[in-house]
Amino acid sequence: MMMKKNEMILAASMLCIALGINASAAEAESDRSQNTEVIEIAAADDLKAVNDNLSGHYVLTADIDLEGEEWTPIGTFVQMGEEGEEAETPDPACAFTGTFDGQGYTISNFTINQPENWALGLFGCIANTEIGNFNVDNVQVDGTTMASSVVGYSFCSTVSDVKLSNAVITAHASDMSAEGMYGGIVGAGMMSRIENCTAEADIVIPDNTANVGLIGGGLELTSVTGSSASGSITAGNNCYGIGGISGCGFGAEEFTDCAAENIMIEAGDNCFWIGGLTGYAGGFEEEEAGIPVTDITGCTIKNVTIWTGKGADGISEIVGAGFFMEGLAETYGMECYANPTAFNVNDCITENVMIEESEGDNNGVFTAIAGENGTTYENFFDVTLAEENHELWYNCTAAITGESAAEDTVAFMQGYISSEMYGEEAIAYYNENPEAQTVFDCFYINGLKLVSFNPDNTITVTLEDGSTQTHTYEYIGSYNVGEGETMVYMGQEISVAFPCDVYKSTDEAGEFNYFFLRDDTMEETGHIEFRYGKNLEELQGYFTGPYAYWLTAGFDVDADEETLKKTVELFVLENMDYSSHTEEALVQISDLIGTWNADLSPFGEEYADTELFFTIDEKGHGITMMDGAQTADFEAYLFDSGEKGDGAGTYIAYSNLENEAEAAEYTLETNEAGETVLTLYAEDGVISYKKAA
To answer: Does the chain have fewer CB atoms within 10 Å around its N or its C terminus?
Structure first.
């Protein structure tokens, strides 16, 4: 949201009365003032109907679960004109201009998959209004600019008391996306306020975009008070304006009592203006500018890590930089001030803020995949689909589905990763059979048997005929695969786009000219995922071109059985349905119904006075309590995967808060005192619980 100098001066005094300077705006304001009827929203259809009356006064009277369906944002951003002030002023006939009081209720489980559209969120565009006092949970948004979970574009409005959780916002490059503006609560804000909001979100933006924050993205003349954020921001190369609370705070009067905590910001090469609180902020000290100097007061930036690739500039714990308009003059053709914007920081706290910049050439994920001495990978699915490893799949699956459905479920999961058909053949097949289950080829192709990633940036490929080739590769950046493509998974249409670090051979290597490496490593996920081929552009197509429906995976040839077990468990747990327990699963968990008190004596005196226990009810739902505070909310599963009746098996807990599942081996036995003892053998240690009488 950038304007020339004369336009900014005009904006400061006139933007919020813009809706009153034209006939349609005046009519809309008149209609709203006369419409005092309060409309109750109690169901999904009521919420959808708000688009039929954008000037109404609404209150939520119940939680609304949208059940994962594709959501049409309330209100749209239609510009009043193409230039100057009118380009940033929404047509009031299209924006939401009513009021919305959520009364503390929750709107949950919706997606917005419009990677070519702008101003996306639960509300697409709001103007001259106030909305708030509601929660938004479990949202996935894919858009091109001004994308958010709650409000895409807020014009002269107030957004208050909104709590966002479990949100994923994925930005896509397009002709409109250069300025970006992606936020958890508000994508873009003009002459607005954000008050007492909380956001827990993960946001991903592509190369050459800007203005992203977990509360607000591109905020111009917009203040933020009493708001907090946690989560992650992942940015591509050549991005700017990235912050824990906001990407841009240009011309804001204040950032007051805000908290950016437990945040990871990862940016690629040549990124600038990145801050723990906001990427860039402030106004101009020149009185004639009419843009206020920003006061940043009483804010906390804690447990924030900022990692950048090479060529980073303007990185700081609180504010990355003032807005140097000179640096953008050539790009945007703007008149420029002689000095950057100014801001004041008062009574702010920073704690455990880490800023790490890559030294020298960024080598992407290659170094981690190669390891210190080089690593050779065989095909992961050749290993895991072997008959001798079937039990690894079965035990995890049976815990969740019950034994009667386990075999079919395993066959289904293995089925959609074990095709031997890809490229033009797969495209033709799915065009002729649109209802067919989508199955991916995950095996090595073009005669590859083994691939070795070496610490000197060479890759050695061993072919099925025993011959080998070694080539040197250079990192050329991060590229998206499947940009703009979607697929239907579990009844939902989802984006398939994902980033890869791309490496190009320095000589002619044919089908091994390029390697596309995802960020998986043996240490983190127990396998790697990658593509390789001779053409850069063709490798970027996930459902198009000669590499369609193909993504392969590698497994360290020297990995032990425990690593294999954990890796298969991870795959199974990530692809299961945890929406409800089967009757068999409830029977399997019956021995764990009740309250279990932790034995913390092995952990030292510091835990002597700590009270830790969990309870599991007859529906398999569990909570964990530590010293009177709830620390976990989960669904429990159990499978006697040893010899039946020996009190040993597989335990699985699915976190309702983090949407992740973890597995552990367990034993269930009776001690000498007649107490029932549950012991969990997890990756991070062993802990025992005694069942309360």
So the answer is: C
Render pLDDT for 428-448 as a digit per residue (tens, 0 to 9). 999 999 888 888 999 999 999
Q: Do both 452 and 524 map to the same domain? A: yes
Is-contact 691 668, C-beta < 8 A? no
The predicted model gives 610-623 an average pLDDT of 95
- 337-390: pLDDT as tens digits: 556 778 999 999 999 998 887 654 467 899 999 999 999 999 999 998 888 889
Tell me the per-residue pLDDT of 389-412, one tens digit each, with 9 for 90 and over. Answer: 898 899 999 999 999 999 999 988
191 three-state secondary structure: coil
pLDDT of 28 reads 41
Average pLDDT of every residue of the chain: 87
* Same domain membership, residue 606 and residue 626: yes
pLDDT in tens, 264-317: 999 988 888 999 999 999 887 655 456 788 999 999 999 999 999 877 888 999
Q: For residue 369, count CB atoms less than 10 angstroms from its CB and return exposed for 0-12, middle for 13-18, buried for 19 or more.
A: buried
Q: Can you state the percent helix, strand and coil of the chain, rounding each to 5?
A: 20, 45, 35
Domain count, the chain: 3
State whether 329 and 386 are in the same domain: no
Distance CA 450, CA 454 (A): 13
Helix (H, G, I), strand (E, B) or coil at 32: helix
Same-domain check for residues 566 and 640: no
- Is the predicted pLDDT of residue 5 greater than 90, yes or no? no
Q: 101 and 58 in contact (C-beta within 8 Å)?
A: yes
What residue has token string 């092995």? 602
The tokens describing 512, both together, are 């091994």
Residue 180 has a pLDDT of 83
Exposure string for 500-537, b = 16+ CB within 10 A, e = fewer:
bbbbbbeeebeebbbbbbbbbbbeebbbbbbbbbbeee
Encoded tokens for 177? 């996306």
Q: How many CB atoms lie within 10 A of CB 97?
A: 25
Which of the listed residues 357, 385, 420 is the one where a domain comes to its end? 357
Whether the per-residue pLDDT at 595 is higher than 90: the answer is yes
CA 658 to chain centre: 12
335 plus 372 within the same structural domain:
no
Task: Tell me which residue range forms the domain holding 388.
Answer: 366-574
Q: With a cut of 50, say whether residue 4 has pLDDT above it.
A: no
Query: What residues are paired with 191 via a beta bridge?
Result: none
What does the pLDDT read at residue 15? 42
Identify whether residues 181 and 163 lie together within a single domain. yes
Cβ atoms of 60 and 44 closer than 8 Å? no
453 and 480 co-located in one domain? yes
From 553, 574, 595, give the residue that closes a domain.
574
- On whether the CB atoms of residues 276 and 306 are closer than 8 A, the answer is yes
